[in-house]
Structures are given as C-alpha cells and as structure tokens.
Amino acid sequence: VKRSKKTGRTEVYQTRAFDLARQEFGIETELRRAIDNGALRLAFQPICDLATGRIVAFEALSRWRTEQGVELSPSDFIPVAEESGLIVPLGRWAMAQAIETVAEWDRRTGGDCGVSVAVNLSAIQLQRDRVATMVGDILESHGVEGRRLTIELTESAIVADPDRTAHTIRALKELGTTLAMDDFGTGYSNLAYLQKLPIDVLKIDRSFVSGMLADRDKVAIVRAILSLAQALGMKTTAEGIETNELAQTLTALGCTYGQGYLYARPLPADQAFRLLSLSKN
Ligand code: C2E
Ligand code: MG
Ligand code: MG
Ligand code: MG
C-alpha cells in the first residue's frame, strides 16, 4: 500500500520494514533447515578452576555455517530462533549434542573424562518446552549422570514466569544438575530469586570483567558480586578473561572459575578433547 506519495517517507519505511521481515523470514527458513540437516555445530570453551588451573567444564556454544558458507554467531541467530520458536528444537539439539559429546569423551577416556558440560537454556525454552523431562531423557539415553551437566540460565528466564521457572529449576536440580546464572548483573530482575532458587554458580558478565583493571567501578561491581556469592554459598565464574593479569586479580579476589580467550576460544569437539587430554587434569 503506497499512500504517502507526497513525502515518500512512509514508503521508504514500509519498504525497509518489509525487507527486514523478509530477511528474517529467510533466516528462519534456513535455520529450520539447518536444524533438520545437521548444519549446526557445537563449539566447546573450557572453564577453569582459577586456583589450580584445571579444566572443570566446557561450555557448549552453538555455531551455524549457512548454505552460503557464512559462519553466523549465536547473537545473529539465537534471537531469530527465540522469536520464531525454533529455539525449542535448536535447544533440544544442543542439549542432546552436548551430552552425547561428554558420553563420547568418557568412552575415549575409558571412564569419567573429568569434566562437565554447560548448556545455555533460553527463557523461551523454559516457558514452552518440558525441559526437565527432555533433559532427563537425554541424560538417561546416553548413560550420563546429571552431575555432569550445568544449565546456564539468564535472569530473563526468571522474570518471564517465576512460578513455572522455579518449578522447572527444581525438577532440573532433582536430576543432579548444576545451575548457573549467566551474564549475572546485566538483567532487569530483582535479587529475590537468589534466595528462592537453588542456584549454584553466578557467572559474572564479561562487560564487568574485561577492562576491570583500568576501571575502579568495574572492580567494585565484581567484588560485590563475589562477596554476594560467597555469602550465599555460591561459586563464581568470571567470563571474558583475556589476560594473565586479569586471571591473577580474579584469583586473588576469590573468584572460583574463569573462562575466556586466555585459556581457549570455543573449539570444535575434537580439539576440545585434545586440549583436555593435554592438560594435566
Ligand atoms: P554466553 O552464554 O554468555 O557465552 C559466552 C560468550 O562469550 C560466547 O559467545 C563466547 O565465545 C564469548 N567469550 C568467551 N570468552 C571470551 C573472551 O575472552 N573474550 C570475548 N570477547 N568473548 C568471549 P558466543 O559463542 O558468540 O555466544 C553468545 C551467546 O549466545 C551466549 O553467551 C549465549 O547466551 C548464546 N548462545 C550460544 N549458544 C547457545 C545455545 O545453544 N542456546 C542458547 N539458548 N543460547 C546460546
Ligand atoms: Mg552461557
Ligand atoms: Mg555468559
Ligand atoms: Mg555473556
């Protein structure tokens, strides 16, 4: 409908909106195909115990190479997946793939390979999917114990539907899983949930960690999160550690775990396993 002949402004806007919608629709169609055809991969990034340097876990991060050979990052396609509901099959795929990978590493090690795997769960999944049943079924079918799995949630998951989320989280905990609050400090929720939910780990967002050595305010925020976690009996993971100096400072401040390019970038499963074999775990 072209009604604004006079200015042309509306028309331009409408065209852009249409293009955007069409582009998103295109991505959505391709993503649906990618999930079905196995074009998605998981990359694994180590999480280290800061005191000992040992790898304790790997975070599983989704990667998508499109049919045109373009490598898309999760920030490009996770929002589309969430809007379209495709996050449900994508999330199920990621959970199954991550747990299958740990089972595979155990087999190659001839026993417990010594690390757990952390999987991100979207707020939409918590609302729409029967997550605890899904996770329990996958663990069982691969013979993996729940203690080998960490679930990473963001504060948005809790804001969306507190009662339902609390119920699901308790069911996930009953499976023996660890619960981590991702990107802690960047959400809009109040802190009451820290008291009500069985959270094990606070992941301090990269925005507070990177550059904190040159920024007293960031140090103050990181310290506050660390002491809050300690008082509540929770562990902490600092995201985005890129330098030795940062690792040392965070260790001195009492942060439990660290994750970042200093240790390794997210790696294909085989490379992650090699890193694990080489490190003196
Ligand atoms: P996240 O869960 O906070 O994951 C950490 C992100 O920080 C990853 O980005 C990782 O590559 C990046 N990172 C780690 N260390 C460093 C560092 O030292 N420097 C810098 N600059 N970046 C670092 P990635 O892989 O692009 O993922 C972005 C976000 O997408 C994730 O943030 C997570 O929220 C979401 N995501 C990824 N995979 C999945 C998935 O399978 N399901 C869901 N629901 N979300 C996912
Ligand atoms: Mg995460
Ligand atoms: Mg995070
Ligand atoms: Mg983050």
Automatic annotation (TrEMBL):
Portion held of the full protein: 276 to 556 of 556
Domain of life (superkingdom): Bacteria
Name listed for the protein in its UniProt record: Bifunctional diguanylate cyclase/phosphodiesterase
Domain EAL: 24-280
Lineage: Bacteria, Pseudomonadati, Pseudomonadota, Alphaproteobacteria, Sphingomonadales
Organism of derivation: Sphingomonas qomolangmaensis
